[in-house]
Write a structure and sequence with these properties.
single chain; alpha/beta; Rossmann fold; binds beta-D-galactopyranuronic acid; signal; carboxylic ester hydrolase activity; hydrolase
């Protein structure tokens, strides 16, 4: 047999075994043994005893590790060049809200990038606390409102939403109203601000578009190994939205809660960790690289996420693919970086890919850091029953159903925000 044919045949026959080894695990009894790094012990082994030591020693070294090895560093400063209110009305949602569409523009050398924040604010509140979140398919998908402008940015195709040739269209207006409980948010006295994430960085493995190239020198094609992936870029966008809120008299910038689902839940956690101006953080079904503990290797793993979405994290994170045991941190420490500000981690029962138990344990193991500040986190190690939220400064629920954002989720977020942020 010709040698090449033999090699091809060999790989063909043994391929199922090779892949079986990396099939996602959904069996609790097959979760590997692992030791979680202690948030209250420094890398050099010193015990952290109070909030001051945490802030001086441990928090900075953890933040630095996540920056250099997981999400990637933002290579420089890029501030808002101009703000334009492109549309507004004081009569939205049957007179209950005002609506504002604000375009932020960034310029550097001969590059320019703009994105639009769509805001609904309750009419009877002078300075509103606000939920801020990214959406997956354009601002016009979040409400059945003909006045919402349609973004021209690249989008992943989704024929069921009428998105083909990577262009958002009229056909998808209002298709995601189910994910945003807008009436309830406004009724409870909060504003909602949303941004289409593709305007900051299109969600594809291409580092030549979005905000990344603003910092390239000479003929650089991609960020350095320790520099930002897409999650960090999206996080940068949220922080610039925060810059804007600080100047908007209609918003209470000291009460902005950053929210995100799934990959955008990973993003909201990283935003909360890196930007202490966010008063609260919500991670909805954020899974691997979000709230879920990586070392459990349950559902999606570091290898799998780096393979499917090579652009989300920094290149250095690939060192931990199939190598979670070498990670000197885990995601409970990402949550701890948000302390003492309120954080809500939510899971869905059928969303095993995101590892609900790993998400819960992260919230639990982050709690000792909250305790340093006299704040109550998650005190019981047993997961609560389905649809039975635990709401402290650290909050958690697992609801029935699949990977999604539902009215049940929002009801809990509003109740919790009323108590811990408003
Ligand atoms: C999945 C990915 C998850 C999650 C999800 C989403 O395909 O594996 O990590 O982020 O996408 O964002 O919808």
């Amino acid at each position: 047999m010709n040698k090449l044919v033999f090699i091809a045949l060999f790989f063909f026959l043994f391929q199922p075994f090779a892949f079986a080894q990396y099939e996602p695990n959904y069996d609790e009894s097959k979760v590997p043994e692992f030791k979680l790094p202690d948030p209250l012990k420094t890398f050099s082994g010193k015990k952290i005893r109070n909030a001051k030591q945490w802030e001086k020693k441990r928090r900075p070294e953890l933040l630095n590790f996540f920056t250099q090895n997981v999400y990637g560093e933002v290579p420089g400063e890029l501030n808002i060049s101009s703000v334009e209110v492109v549309e507004q009305s004081n009569n939205a949602l049957n007179g209950k809200a005002s609506r504002k569409q604000v375009e932020l523009t960034f310029k550097k050398d001969n590059r320019s990038l703009s994105y639009t924040i769509l805001m609904y604010l309750p009419i009877n509140v002078e300075k509103a606390p606000v939920f801020l979140g990214y959406n997956f398919y354009g601002n016009h998908t979040i409400a059945n409102d003909v006045n919402i402008l349609i973004s021209e940015a690249w989008s992943r195709d989704n024929p069921s939403f009428g998105i083909i040739h990577n262009q958002l269209t009229e056909q998808s207006r209002g298709v995601r109203t189910n994910r945003w409980a807008l009436d309830e948010i406004i009724g409870a006295g909060y504003g909602l601000a949303v941004i289409y994430y593709g305007e900051i960085d299109p969600d594809k493995d291409d580092m030549s578009d979005g905000v990344h190239p603003f910092f390239y020198v000479d003929d650089q094609q991609q960020p350095a190994d320790n520099e930002w992936g897409s999650i960090s870029a999206w996080t940068w966008g949220l922080s610039r939205a925060m810059d804007y809120f600080q100047k908007d008299a209609d918003v209470d910038a000291s009460k902005v809660i950053v929210f995100g689902h799934s990959r955008l839940g990973k993003t909201s956690l990283w935003a909360g960790a890196t930007d202490t101006r966010f008063a609260g953080v919500i991670s909805n079904d954020s899974g691997c690289g979000g709230a879920a503990l990586s070392k459990r290797r349950f559902g999606e793993t570091v290898w799998r996420i780096n393979r499917s979405f090579p652009h989300w994290f920094c290149t250095n994170f690939k060192n931990y693919s199939k190598n979670e045991e070498a990670l000197p941190v885990d995601q409970h420490q990402l949550i701890a970086l948000i302390a003492p500000r309120p954080v809500y981690v939510a899971s869905a029962e059928e969303d095993l890919w995101a590892d609900p138990k790993g998400e819960f344990l992260s919230a639990y193991y982050a709690s000792p850091v909250y305790k340093l500040y006299g704040k109550e986190g998650i005190v019981q190690k047993e997961m609560p029953g389905v649809n039975r939220p635990i709401q402290n400064t650290v909050a958690y629920h697992i609801r029935t159903g699949k990977h999604d954002v539902t009215d049940f989720d929002w009801e809990q977020y509003i109740k919790w925000a009323d108590k811990f942020v408003k």
